[in-house]
Design brief:
single chain, about 290 residues, mainly alpha, two-stranded antiparallel sheet, globular
């Protein structure tokens, strides 16, 4: 009876136990990191948090006797190309609604003379957040859920979890909470589709990274409610709440939501040649 609870008919540990094991391992690593940070007086920064998720993922993959590239994708020219494609798409995802708001007179910008000092920190912060969140939400756990439940149940569960982690962000109140919540939920579906279409985290990491960097570090909007100092300083004319992005960012605007929906449709309809991403044997064993 215990064997059936722990293992599937093929003798492999069931996906629910992998889910639990992953978080136990990550909690142990994070606990040790926080203890070291307290003792040696350093900050558990976002890059360090990304390393915690990476290490937990690597340990779980080692236990499964599977390569880390199964989660991240094989790092080669194709990986870099997908990352750059995702970065271009992420920039477009934020530029389109911002330009629309500018065209109707809802927002205008002025140059921020102090922004140059934040270029490097903005890049490091945004790439660390994108890497950590995509590896956490579209990496090991996502693949275990796909194996156990199927693609769309896994998508819905991970999108709900992704939203849950953002619910207490600054500015998540009133009408903003509904619109921003819907946008964040659908953004998770978008990132998930980016992984499913390529079986690599290169595209979703690039998409996530550049969307955040363009929205915050370039355009000066908030990013999921977190205020950012950008190259530009936006000023709003005080239009309706569904147009005025306010503190939360473009994720709380209808134009931003429309762009995410369009991106989901494009990704859903996109059918890349599978052999261009991984070979037939890898396809067969991907989520085993």
């Amino acid at each position: 009876m215990i064997k059936k609870i722990l293992f599937d008919p093929f003798g492999k540990l069931r996906n629910g136990w992998w889910f639990l094991l992953f978080f136990l391992i990550m909690a142990a690593i994070l606990g040790a990191t926080m203890l070291a940070a307290w003792k040696f007086h350093f900050e558990v920064s976002m890059p360090l948090q990304a390393l915690v998720v990476l290490l937990a993922s690597w340990i779980c993959q080692q236990l499964r006797k599977r390569p880390l590239s199964e989660l991240l994708g094989k790092f080669n020219r194709r990986w870099l190309g997908q990352f750059l494609l995702g970065s271009a798409a992420g920039a477009t995802l934020m530029l389109l609604p911002a330009l629309l708001l500018a065209a109707i007179g809802e927002v205008h910008w002025q140059w921020n003379p102090e922004a140059q000092s934040t270029i490097l920190s903005g890049l490091i912060g945004c790439i660390s957040v994108a890497f950590a969140e995509e590896l956490l939400f579209r990496g090991f756990i996502f693949q275990r859920f796909i194996n156990g439940l199927g693609q769309w149940p896994a998508q819905i569960l991970l999108a709900a979890w992704f939203l849950l982690t953002h619910l207490n962000n600054p500015g998540m109140t009133g009408n903003v909470k509904f619109l921003a919540g819907l946008n964040i939920f659908l953004a998770s579906i978008m990132f998930g589709l980016a992984f499913l279409r390529t079986k690599s985290l290169a595209l979703p990491i690039g998409l996530h990274f550049m969307a955040n960097w363009m929205q915050g570090s370039v355009l000066g909007f908030g990013v999921s409610g977190n205020s950012e100092q950008g190259f530009l300083i936006p000023s709003f004319t005080g239009g309706p709440a569904w147009l005025s992005v306010g503190q939360f960012g473009l994720e709380a605007s209808v134009p931003g939501l429309v762009c995410v929906i369009l991106a989901i449709i494009i990704l859903y309809r996109w059918k890349p040649a599978r052999h261009s991403v991984f070979d037939t044997a890898e396809v067969k064993n991907r989520f085993a």
